[in-house]
TrEMBL record:
It comes from Riccia sorocarpa. Belongs to the HARBI1 family. InterPro entries: HARBI1-like (IPR045249), HARBI1_dom (IPR027806). This is DDE Tnp4 domain-containing protein. GO terms for molecular function: hydrolase activity; metal ion binding; nuclease activity. Residues 1-20 form the signal peptide.
Length: 434
């Protein structure tokens, strides 16, 4: 059927070209040797004196050809590309393990993501060209994040243009951040915070831990020239710092990815929105646990010695000083609990090789890309843990309940806190030694 339509189009174009040629070359309309009546010769001579009279006819014929071509679904405007790799191998032939190695997320989660992101990513179907399907667009972008390959290789596999993939990838990342970010990358509520604290206690033996915090360098290439020297880290690589807080299951609870590679970890924390939320009393408030016969222990984070001691941030004792047996035991438990953030960074960079290979783009684009990969990492982790059906997070009642709990928390006020983080650490040392 398509072959017959192409033949009809070629026939129409050839007929128009012949007719235009006859109109333009008036000397071919008649033979000088033939006898032509006077009236016909006068009409021909009048046409020769005003040759521009044929252009309205030419314009009308051109419009007719363009109108016919508009019914051909982009035959003039879109280069035909092969979708065999996507339609057959990826969607049907690949087993689950090979599927995850190409797009990171399991097959059922991928189809759910297509359904959720379609309202934002689906484009209008016109007569001039067919839009790229949402599943092809999403799979191509995920494959680039997973493999770290160039735009050319990824677009060739999925049968779309290189410039098309480069143009659509920002829209896909924005859709992931805006639609899935509030659902999968958020600070836990009171019930979830209690579960995280119990999981940390079973792992390392320290009570009421809210999470582990650390920073990791994400390689970038060719940042802004004016401040290029600010992005060199201690290894002389250009990078941005990903500061993250994770739970015991290696899922991220909060991230910040905007500081240059030369910035210290504590400075990154002070520049982050999380630090402002802590100072304002919006997070790390409850649940409060009583230890050592009356000490009120608020939730706190575990960090390394790159951070300064805070009432809500515990660091280990220095290994260079003289420490007691209880302090050494506290250090061992502290390191055991803090290892989850190192594993989280390792899993993130292993799943999304583009973070390890280096991001060739602006700093703002790199930060957006890192944010999207952290959201995808959390989706994978929560799916592996066998949480409830992921589609349930879209229920609007969850958001209403969350807003109501936050309002009640602010109305209750902020509990009394110790004067310094050293008091909290000494209380934990006494708890460990008891």
């Amino acid at each position: 059927m398509q072959y017959e339509e192409e033949q009809l189009l070629l026939l129409l174009m050839a007929s128009v070209m012949v007719l235009l040629q006859l109109l333009m070359e008036n000397e071919d309309l008649f033979d000088e040797d033939e006898e032509v009546d006077a009236s016909k010769r006068r009409r021909i001579e009048a046409a020769e004196e005003t040759p521009t009279s044929i252009w309205p006819i030419a314009v009308q014929l051109s419009c007719a050809v363009m109108a016919f071509c508009s019914l051909q679904q982009g035959a003039w405007w879109v280069k035909e590309r092969s979708l065999i790799w996507h339609d057959y191998f990826l969607m049907h032939a690949f087993e689950d393990f090979r599927w995850r190695s190409c797009v990171a997320v399991p097959r059922d989660i991928f189809m759910w993501m297509v359904q959720v992101l379609s309202p934002r990513l689906k484009l209008q179907d016109t007569h001039w060209r067919r839009p790229v399907p949402v599943d092809v667009k999403l799979a191509a972008c995920l494959h680039r994040l997973v493999s770290g390959s160039s735009y050319f290789l990824c677009s060739d596999r999925f049968g779309i243009g290189c410039s098309t993939l480069q143009e659509q990838m920002p829209f896909v990342l924005d859709a992931i951040i805006q639609d899935l970010g509030p659902l999968f990358l958020k600070w836990p509520e009171a019930d979830e915070a209690g579960r995280i604290s119990q999981a940390f206690y079973r792992r390392c033996g320290l009570p009421n831990i809210a999470g582990a915090i650390d920073g990791s360098h994400i390689k970038i290439k060719n940042p802004e020239r004016r401040h290029a020297s600010d992005y060199f880290n201690r290894k002389r690589d250009q990078s941005i710092v990903l500061q993250a807080i994770c739970d015991s299951d290696n899922a991220f609870l909060d991230i910040s990815c905007s500081a240059p590679g030369s910035v210290h970890d504590m400075r990154c924390l002070r520049l982050s929105s999380f630090f402002r939320r802590v100072e304002a009393g919006d997070v790390l408030i409850d649940p409060v646990q009583t230890i050592n016969e009356g000490f009120q222990l608020r939730p706190y984070l575990l960090g390394d010695q790159g951070y300064a001691m805070q009432p809500w941030l515990m660091i280990p004792f220095s290994i260079h000083g003289r420490s007691s047996a209880s302090q050494q035991m506290y250090n061992r438990k502290h390191v055991t609990g803090r290892l989850c953030i190192e594993r989280s960074f390792g899993l993130l960079k292993a799943r999304f090789r583009i973070l390890e290979n280096g991001i060739t783009s602006s700093v703002a684009w790199a930060a957006k890309l890192v944010h999207a990969t952290c959201i995808l990492h959390n989706i994978i982790v929560k799916n592996q843990l066998g949480h409830d059906d992921i589609s349930a997070v879209l229920e609007p009642t969850i958001r209403r309940e969350r807003a109501a709990r936050n309002l009640r928390r602010r109305q209750q006020g902020r509990p009394n806190s110790p004067d310094s983080g050293h008091d909290v650490r000494e209380a934990l040392v006494s708890y460990v030694a008891s």
